[in-house]
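Notebook, bench 3.
Goal today: get a predicted structure for Copper chaperone CopZ from Flavobacterium omnivorum so we can plan the truncation constructs. The sequence was checked against the plasmid map this morning, with no discrepancies at the termini. Length recorded as 113 residues. Pasting the sequence as submitted so the record is complete.
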Amino acid sequence: MKNILAVLLLTFIGFSIQAQEVKNKNAKVEFHVSGNCEMCKKRIEKGALSVSGVKSADWHMDCGTLYLIVNEQKTDVLTIQKAIAKAGHDTDEVKALKEDYDKLHTCCQYERK
């Protein structure tokens, strides 16, 4: 009886360990961020880097894609997108508030969807 109980316990522990998601310390993430110019680039990258766990941020003006290296144990994509939206720039998931968008310089005000 003890052997059966031990086997069931080990099986349960094995399944529990497999069910846990392993979070990457150097995950590569990319998503679209709306912007126009070099000032936008600085603001977007600064907004992303303000989030703990973001190791690098590089926004490409020509395609509007933000490339990140992120420690997934410290943050997630939604948190980063919220920080960028607070800086006045829309992402695919999070739109900037009108007040934050209106604070942008006129050359930075992109066409909103």
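The two ends are 65 Å apart (CA to CA). The domain at 23-108 is CATH 3.30.70.100 (Alpha-Beta Plaits).
Flagging this for group meeting.
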